[in-house]
Structures are given as C-alpha cells and as structure tokens.
Design goal:
Layout lengths: L21 E6 L3 H12 L4 E7 L2 H8 L6 E4 L8 H12 L3 E6 L7 H9 L3 E4 L9 H13 L11 E2 L34 E6 L3 H10 L9 E5 L6 H12 L3 E3 L11 E3 L5 E6 L5 E6 L11 H12 L3 E5 L8 H9 L3 E5 L9 H7 L5 E3 L1 H10 L4
Parallel strand pairs: 1-2, 1-3, 3-4, 4-5, 7-8, 7-13, 8-10, 9-10, 13-14, 14-15
Antiparallel strand pairs: 6-15, 11-12
Length: 382
C-alpha cells in the first residue's frame, strides 16, 4: 500500500474553526495508519486532519501550539503508551475529545474500559493495515459525527434550586411543580434517601469515576447503575467500578436482592428493574422489552421502577450521554417525590441525556460530577 507523509498543520484549517471543519489530531506510531486514517477523515465533509504524530510527547508538543476538537489515540506506542498519556493529552487538549483507535480496543477489553474511565470519549478497534478502509472508515467518521452532537438545551451554567421552589426557567420547557412526597416514612435531615440510581452513556464512565472519588469509605447506600455498554464490556466495567468506588460491584442477575454497601450494574443485554418484596426489602428483575428510547439496557425503566418502590427515598443521577434515555424515568422519579440531579453541560462529553432532563424542568440541580458526588455523600437534597 502506498503511503504519504503525515499531514502537518495547515494554515487554512489549523486556526479557529471558521471554515466548518472540526480539527483532528492523529496520534499513532504507524506511518501507514496515520496516512490511511488521515485520508479517510479528510474525505468527509465535516472533519479535517490538522496534524499526525507518532508519539505522545509529539502530540503534547503539537497541542501546545494548536487547538483541535478531536484526538485519535493509539494505545500501543513506543515510549509512553496511550493509556498512560491519556490524562495529559486530555488536559493539553483543553476540551478536545479523545477517541481511542487501537487494536487493543476490543469490545470488553480491559484497555477499552480503562480508557473510558480515564476520560476517553469513545473507543474503536483498529483493524490490520490492509483493512483500514471501507467499513472501518465509515465507523470512524460515524463515531466522530455522533460525538459532535451537543443539544444546546440550556446555558452551560450550574443550576441549583431548593426543592420547594419553582424550577429555574429553561428554554422550551414548562416549569413542573414538585409534588408532595408520596412516602409515609418520616424524613430525617441527615437521612434523606435510601438508594442511588445512576444512568449514563458516552462519557459516563469518566464521570462515574469523579462521582465515586467524592464518596466516603463509610457510604453504605446501595447504588444502581445503567451504563450504555455492550454486554461484553460488563465484567470488566463492574471490576473497574469496584476499584474506583472501593466497594463490591456486581453485574445484575435476575432476582438479586438490593443490599447496602453494594453497587449493581445493569447487564448489557437486559433492562434492570426493581420490585418490592414487602417486608423483605426489594430485588432486581431483568427484562427485555423494547424501551421507548431504543436503548438496551435503558435508564428509563430502571428509574421508573425504583421510583415505584422507593418514592421520595431515592436520588436519581443522569450523567453524560447521547440521546434522551433517562428523561422519562427522571420525570417518574420527580412525580413520586424523589430527587433528580443532572450533570452540567460543560463537564459532559455529550450533553444529550442530562440536557434532556434539565430542559424538561425535572432536575433539582445541574452540577459537575465531583459536586454530584459530594451531594450524594451528604444524603441531603440540594
């Protein structure tokens, strides 16, 4: 296969994004891969490769003199590998989204979930040099296009309101008054809810890591997570979450009991729902019906079912992700007197899911992940 010299910053496309092209930096030690990937990207009508380098150090130097919207990063490179360099590249990129493009990025591979936890926006397996075209090119450009989705549903500001107040005005959304709590239990100021439910998609794993970093060792409430990932990712995802949170984390199985001190994640091929067991507490059920969001697993049925069981004794968190999954479930939580928190736009890789919740007027607060973690730790409403 013929190759060309790696592209260098072009004056017409290396400055501010005035020409409509999103700028891309390729970081890959293979000259052939850099050339072919550059050609695939430049053939699109939305993206332009403004730089291609072979090492992480060269990428940092490039980012010191140019800005980009996307960084395509290989994992296996000489010197500093991609995973080790990822946090520094994210910092140097000043908002650039990192897409891992590597032969090590298999579905379910430990490296893939680790990269997402470190802040990568997406992963894509890189085929052999002879297959760097066709379907791979379409998949690559498609992932970049989806990462460009930024529904501007409300200003990227932190919004916090007391639960008794009317919702802050949000464009195209009607204020929704908070109903009276439906629980018959008496609330204590320091014991405001009994379960945490979290929904997330693209960018959510990194946000989860920031949330868990703020939880104290003694935090014992059960935490339930629906994260959009293929089923093959789930075993390592659960292991990664256990490591981040410092507490046991299991992939849900049918009829698993809700227990204090544990984290439960939805499997990649079933919805996770909660059912009451009377005096015996609650348990999880796995279902496979079509969800309105089209997602499997979907955040909506998880939130709605937990709201039916726990009512005002739950807190729902919607983190970074594409689409609207979680918006209807969050409304059910709100209707049952529960608390709803959405991640803010500035810290989100894609402000689709949390943005939809904020626009619907059902969020009690819109916060960055670290602030969400601190709020959860207090067990108080915002």
């Amino acid at each position: 296969m013929a190759s060309r010299s790696p592209p260098v910053p072009r004056p017409d496309r290396a400055g501010p994004q005035a020409d409509g092209f999103a700028r891309v930096l390729i970081v890959d030690d293979s000259v052939v891969a850099r050339a072919v990937i550059a050609r695939l990207i430049d053939a699109s009508d939305r993206f332009s490769v403004v730089g291609a380098v072979g090492t992480a150090q060269a990428a940092l130097e490039f980012l010191g003199r140019a800005t980009v919207e996307f960084i395509l990063l290989d994992i296996e490179m000489p010197g500093v590998d991609g995973l080790t360099a990822l946090p520094d590249l994210i910092a140097a990129g000043q908002g650039a989204k990192v897409l891992i493009v590597s032969s090590s990025a298999d579905d379910g591979a430990a490296a893939s979930v680790q990269a997402l936890a470190l802040g990568a926006a997406e992963t894509l397996i890189k085929p052999s040099a002879g297959a760097l075209s066709g379907r791979f090119g379409a998949a690559l450009v498609g992932k970049l296009e989806r990462l460009c989705e930024h529904p501007a549903l409300m200003p990227p500001a932190i919004v916090v309101r007391p639960p008794a107040a009317a919702p802050a005005p949000v464009p195209s959304a009607q204020p929704v008054p908070r109903p009276a709590p439906t629980t018959h239990r008496t609330r204590a100021a320091s014991d405001d809810y009994d379960i945490v439910a979290i929904g997330a998609s693209t960018g959510g794993i990194h946000a989860l890591s920031q949330v868990f970093r703020e939880l104290p060792v003694g935090f014992r409430l059960p935490i339930v997570i629906t994260q959009h990932l293929p089923a093959s990712f789930m075993p390592y995802f659960a292991a990664q979450i256990a490591l981040l949170a410092g507490r046991p984390c299991d992939v849900a199985t049918d009829r698993l009991r809700v227990r204090p001190g544990r984290i439960i994640v939805a499997p990649g091929d079933a919805h996770l729902k909660c059912v009451a067991l009377g005096e015996d507490g609650a348990a999880f059920r796995l279902t496979h019906e079509l969800a309105a969001s089209g997602c499997m697993p979907s955040v909506d049925p998880m939130l709605a079912s937990i709201a039916e069981v726990y009512g005002a004794r739950m807190i729902a968190i919607i983190l970074s992700g594409m689409g609207r999954d979680g918006a209807e479930g969050a409304r059910r939580v709100r209707d049952r007197g529960g608390c709803v928190i959405a991640q803010d736009q500035k810290s989100s890789v894609v402000w689709g899911m949390p943005g939809a919740v904020a626009a619907a007027g059902v969020a009690d607060a819109v916060l960055p992940p670290d602030a969400i973690g601190r709020l959860i730790a207090t067990r108080r409403r915002p």
